[in-house]
Design brief:
Radius of gyration: 19 Å
Helix content: 40-55%
CATH class of the largest domain: Alpha Beta
Order of helices and strands: HHHHHHEHHEEEHEHEHEHEEHEHHH
Number of domains: 2
CATH topology of the largest domain: TIM Barrel
CATH superfamily of the largest domain: Glycoside hydrolase/deacetylase
CATH architecture of the largest domain: Alpha-Beta Barrel
Shape: globular
Structural class: alpha/beta
Number of helices: 16
Number of strands: 10
Distance between the termini: 23 Å
């Protein structure tokens, strides 16, 4: 039997973090279980034709996160723990993005006052989550040239309020401006050298630190895109790198969360990436199934505002007891190195 790689051992520790911390299971029992080895196997970034095929299959519903990610992880936990593996999913809720790029252009729909119901609903429910923050806001992030502005005093005050609520922040790029106009090629990080992407991220971190006193430990790549060869540069700065459905074209389809090159890769895939109305029934099924897994979920406040907030109210009320503070996850990541 081949030995697990360092990243595979780390992924296995993360899958059984609570039990290992409590001493109810040993690393030997975890590392030697065939089901665990299958669930945490590190997959290489596939060639571009494979990535294109994976993205198409995912979109067509033929590449199922349930079958490819959730079911193997559940089998692994139950093979080692038996009935003790059962428990509610540990929801890692991420919200993209604040401030909204249309805040200055359409303040009534996307300005800070329009964002306020998100904060009120989540704070009232006590629903832990991460907010992806844009340090500078492009006037139109879908155009490769144009102006950008700094965070306003009102937006900085909102970030301080969110921090007081216990919200954790993720870095959402620098200006969230695409380098290419074609919708299928939108990326702020992609097609830069490793040195270039590192410099951009350092610049973004510097702006957030100076202006808002924030130093995110989580990267939320703009447009969910970056190049696979850049991953080590991202991992050198962030213990957690997130992704989404668009990441498949660049990285391929991978389990989540999984350790890669010294950082945890945490993509979220539909149907757990969408509106609250789309996500809630899926989480309800996972609650009924007692998966006991780290479960990344992505919402967008602008989408919920356009739907009148009622879906988010229902979502927050139901999911708040299972939403894990991101600092708890970040601590688990550190302990499983």
């Amino acid at each position: 039997m081949n030995a697990l790689s360092l990243d595979e051992r780390r992924s296995a520790r993360l899958l059984f973090h609570s039990e290992l911390a409590a001493g109810t299971v040993t690393e030997e029992a975890v590392f030697t279980a065939p089901e665990v080895r299958a669930a945490v196997r590190t997959r290489h970034v596939p060639p571009l034709p494979w990535r294109v095929a994976q993205a198409a299959l995912r979109k067509a519903g033929r590449l199922s996160p349930q079958q490819r990610v959730i079911d193997p992880a559940v089998r692994a936990r139950r093979a080692v723990l038996g009935a003790a593996a059962d428990g509610p999913p540990r929801v890692l809720l991420r919200m993209d993005e604040y401030p909204h790029w249309l805040a200055a252009r359409e303040p009534a729909r996307f300005g800070d006052d329009a964002f306020a119901p998100w904060r009120e609903i989540m704070a009232a429910a006590g629903c832990a989550h991460l907010v992806a923050v844009v340090p500078r806001i492009a006037d139109d992030p879908e155009q490769k040239t144009g102006g950008a502005r700094d965070l306003t005093d009102v937006e900085l005050a909102r970030l301080r309020q969110l921090a007081a609520d216990g919200v954790v922040f993720g870095l959402h790029g620098y200006e969230h401006r695409t380098r290419f106009a074609h919708p299928r090629l939108h990326t702020e990080l992609g097609h830069r050298s490793r040195a270039g992407v590192g410099a951009l991220l350092d610049q973004a971190l510097g702006v957030l630190s100076r202006r808002a006193g924030i130093r995110p430990q989580v990267l939320v790549p703009p447009f969910n895109t970056f190049d696979a060869f850049q991953y080590r540069e991202l991992a050198a700065r962030f213990p957690v790198v997130t992704g989404g459905p668009e990441s498949i074209l660049r990285m391929g389809f991978h389990a989540t969360p999984t350790w890669r090159a010294g950082s945890v890769y945490l993509p979220a895939y539909p149907p757990l990436y969408g509106t609250a109305a789309e996500v809630l029934p899926v989480l309800d099924q996972q609650l009924a199934a007692d998966t006991g897994l780290w479960t990344p979920v992505v919402l967008h406040w602008g989408w919920e505002a356009q739907r009148g907030w009622r879906d988010l109210e229902l979502f927050a009320e139901m999911i708040a007891p299972y939403a894990v503070p991101w600092n708890t996850f970040l601590d688990a990541v550190e302990r499983t190195r």
